[in-house]
């Protein structure tokens, strides 16, 4: 019997790409300060990091979650959210939770007292996102590729571009234009992240152009330069990814976005390509 939750449609959960069962596995739940400013703010985002991932990118920046699947089974997610809210976080930030959708969706009822952020790879079916209508306030998806060859080679998902397009369209339909509170924190809306990979500037430009032409000011973009080759990367099979993104390449991507007229975007400055941006997954919280 197929799982059917994510676009993979694996025959068995435990032997599928996510490699986990139906009970959510959590590796960390704590205030997180390395998201976009309108998400982290001054008190942090209440980030709950889930283990396992249906995408399995060869360069995954959270390899302990995706490949090692560190974490602890949790049956009372609601208690974790409430504990984080008691600590004063601006929102509850669910990181890669899509493959646990039934349990996570149930944990969000009734609505929480702070906004809920859905932080994902973008590789989710339209039906998955539709099931979150009324439960999620802010969507924070990746949009990794428009190049199907890259999607196939680096994420084993040749269909990633079309899946991500449909998922994003449903996210924007649900939230409408961005809404902020009096402190400048996002209360509702969509921020689309694009992590520039080494040698992938041309596709990065295609992604930015698609997002701008399709959604304009209905979304924010977050253009990221923090790619770091980690231990899990097969440097022999993927030598082109075994390096950081050159500063000039990222600057070209930002300049291209500006030339298109992109006004609502977050960019990174300085040396962000380092492992210190990856939190320790030590079951905190």
Map the helices and strands:
Elements lengths: L24 E8 L4 H4 L4 E6 L12 H4 L5 E2 L3 H10 L5 E4 L5 H7 L8 E5 L5 H5 L7 E4 L6 H8 L4 H16 L3 E2 L5 E10 L5 H15 L4 E5 L22 H14 L4 E3 L18
Structural overview:
The model has no long low-confidence stretch (mean pLDDT 93). The longest helix has 16 residues, at 160-175. The chain is built from 9 helices and 10 strands. Strands 1, 2, 3, 4, 5, 6, 7, 8, 9 and 10 form a 10-stranded mixed sheet that branches. The protein is an alpha/beta fold.
Structural class: alpha/beta
Distance between the terminal alpha carbons, to the nearest Å? 35 Å
Tell the overall outline.
globular
The oligomeric status of these chains comes to: single chain
**Cα gyration radius (Å):** 18 Å
**What is the residue-averaged pLDDT?**
93
H-E order:
EHEHEHEHEHEHHEEHEHE
Q: How many beta strands in the DSSP annotation?
A: 10
Instruction: Please report which band the strand proportion falls in: under 5%, 5-15%, 15-25%, 25-35%, 35-45% or over 45%.
Output: 15-25%
In helices, the fraction of residues equals 25-40%
Q: State the helix count.
A: 9
Mind describing the biggest β-sheet?
Answer: 10 strands, mixed
The low-confidence runs, each spanning 5 or more residues with pLDDT under 50, are none
